Amino acid sequence: MPKKKKEMKSDDLTILPLVDEEINTKNQLKKDLHPNLPDIKKGALMGIVASIRSGKTVLINNLFMRPEFFKDCFDTSFFISPTIYSDKSMRFIRDLYDNTCYDEYSDDIIYKICKYQESQPLEERGSYSIMADDCVDLKRNSALVFLASRFRHYSQKASFVGFSTQKFRSLSPIIRNNTTDWLIGGIKNKKERESIIEEMADAFGGEENFEEIWNYATSEPFCFLYLKMDRTPCEAYKNFNEKLYPREGGNPEGDDNEDDSIEETIEENIENE
């Protein structure tokens, strides 16, 4: 039985969201994801900032190789990394996504993805993801930077664009301003830390509170601070499971909850399948 439409009073000036019931019915995600993860159904833009040998590659493998994360979520996934074929820790990605792996960035890669998506009727456009790893030479007028502000328009199902870098400010302001999710490792470089604190702290209770949260989240090897910028208020986690902000009681503290954890090493999960 069709839903009865809500009657609007003539003096009701509430701004309502646009809802296309047909598209919402057709374009369901292939599986339910943990609510802490990026909201790929609405469209997610993720920035990963971490130093060398901080577990960044293992993290990317987890995101795209494990069913708890994004494995089998997208109709097509693309990987752009200068070390995609030389880094043995990327062998899992290569084996599963070999036809859509690139070891050199080119605007043509992005143009072809967008052109193909646009060639399909809006309601039939497949879900897609793009992961750009250490593409430090991206120009501000590159196609991928342009896509960062429009990626949601190319799929009604699910979309994800990710950037990983060792230097926060190497990402253009367009990317940084549109990022919905940040993964930040323990960074020791003073100038790099100051850049991140300057840009992030106001959303997380000020500089002192943000730095305390950051230090706690990255106090153990290969752990990271996860920031959800698309929530109101913004949320901060240690890894994906321990919420640090906003949180009653002030300073973040407490032990990791092993039962709730959705993280393990990629080798243990994939090689045992």
List strands and helices in order, with pairings.
Elements: H1 21-26, E1 44-49, H2 56-65, E2 76-80, H3 91-97, E3 101-102, H4 107-119, E4 128-133, H5 143-147, E5 159-165, H6 173-178, E6 181-184, H7 190-200, H8 207-217, E7 225-228, E8 235-238, E9 242-245, H9 266-270
Parallel strand pairs: 1-5, 1-6, 2-3, 2-4, 4-5
Antiparallel strand pairs: 6-7, 7-8, 8-9
Task: Provide a brief overview of the structure.
The protein has 273 residues and is an alpha/beta fold.
How would you sum up this structure, described in words?
The longest helix has 13 residues, at 107-119. The protein is of the alpha/beta class and 273 residues long. Mean pLDDT is 85; it is low at 21-25 and 251-267. Strands 3-2-4-5-1-6-7-8-9 form a nine-stranded mixed β-sheet. It has nine helices and nine strands. It has two domains: 40-179, 3-Layer(aba) Sandwich (Rossmann fold); 183-245, no CATH class.
